[in-house]
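re: ur question from the group chat, yeah i did fold both. here u go
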Amino acid sequence: MSNVREYLKNRGIENDSEDDYEYKIKQHKRKIRFFVIGLIMAVVLVVLSIKIYIDNMTYDEYEVSDVYQKDQTANCTFYKFDEGMLRFSNDGLTYLQDNVSVWNQAFEMKTPLIDICGSYIAIADINTNIVYIYDAKKLQGKVETTYPILDIEVSEQGVVAAITQDSETNCIEVIKKDGTLIAKGQTYLTDSGCPLSISLSNDGTKLAVSYVYIDGGEAKTRVVFYNYSEVGKNEVERVVGGFDHYGTTIVPKVEFIDNDTVVAFGDNMYTVYSIKQKPSKVKEAKIDKEIKSIFYNKEHFGMILLTGEYDEPYILKCFDKDGDEELSLKLDFQYTNVSIEGDIIVLNNAERMKLITTSGTIKYEGNIDSGIKTVIPTSKPNIYYIVNDNNIEKIKLK
């Protein structure tokens, strides 16, 4: 046998067989690789085709699939929350999922405040010192501020930021849900200014504050950023950046639309900031018409402007989170509420609802027979809850 093997080796036949075997293995692996790539591309194309189909699908009518909570909507405000909705009033708070009360909290508040971020809720009464923190399951904490509360914000981690006020100054207090104080700082109108708006990042480590201050007898705005992680520990009062280039423009609202992106809504402009560690300005644009409403989520933000025209009194503008314009559309729809869920902008008045995608497709416009107080979107683009004066209707667009 060894002689035969030696003979084949000398003739090059054995080596040729080994080379041919290795070549076939490489070819087989290459075929598998191409097959996997092709399969992935096919799946991506199918997903994109489905998304394009859903995005461009429009609806002409609706049907009521269920009716909930009869006679329990008076004097209540409703919010989308987690997989259901919140029913909120001066007397208490209830978390509902498909007509089932997951939990209920009774209280008496004169001027209640509520903020929602992800699966956390913060509730407080103006001019008191207690903030209640809930998630989708139950009460998670009750924290006390040093001074009476003027405004609150909560993060996706249950961290609370509060604007508070003593007899002479405003104060910003940042507190964990277990009551641990993260930061507290006083502000003065003639120095740092009084806070108009605060917003926490989703992870609770960064804070954006819009301050109004007096300079030369004029009210001006500065936007200041704080970082409570390791990044800001060596900075004075944890301040990692600030911008006071707004002149006489007032910035009544700042908002983290995702963990690293802040939009400052001015009365005649907007600014997009990126703050992974320290802030930088990404985009800024002037608005030449009066801003009536704003809306935002994690991917988009927008505003409705007054045109001064009778036939088309509004312009709807929507931007991606980098501040680039996605949509500019004139509207003749007389709305009372506007919000955004995913890629769908939801407008309604007391009788009618209009749904517009961020690309400009009118998905639905029509009357809701029972009337509308609030529209609560769901995770499905054709399923909505309609809150009216008497009950809650679950509708399906078709």
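okk and heres the other one u asked abt
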Amino acid sequence: MASLAKSAAPAGYDHLFIKAGGTAATFLVEVDGVDIGRFSEVSGLQVEVEVEQYNEGGVNGFSHHLPGRMTWPNLVLKRGITYDDNLLNWFHQTTGDAFVTQGKVLRTTAAVTMISSSGKRLRSWNLTDAVPVRWSGPQFAATAEEQPTEELEVAHHGFEATSFR
């Protein structure tokens, strides 16, 4: 049987936050090496494996459960409005008129990196074939006291995790 571990964690590193000193402060998003920005919330970082059930003749005590297709939900990223245009530039390069002009989907490699409150990179998730599929901006009201935010939804074909030591 092949080993599951790529490399063992050094002693004392079994929990990322012990050595980093605190919790994640922000999540840096990069697309093909270009900094898209820092986000305060990331959701949808998960994978699900469909299970196929197989009933073997003569085995009545249980059904075999076999792993099937893997699916990944879209990632949803949230942050306060910034001056930077990289996020919307990426959105426009991969959708709308750009899609019609190119005649194909421009898929990219995106990385979501957890940054500690001290600025240290803790862990990164590299998304394969990422493409932005929804953006929503702030809702305006003269009486609103909360910070204006934007939200980006990204479809992808899976991810790999990387830790920084």
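fwiw on the second one: Residues 86-94 form the longest helix (9 residues). Helices lie at 16-20, 86-94, 96-102. idk if thats what u expected
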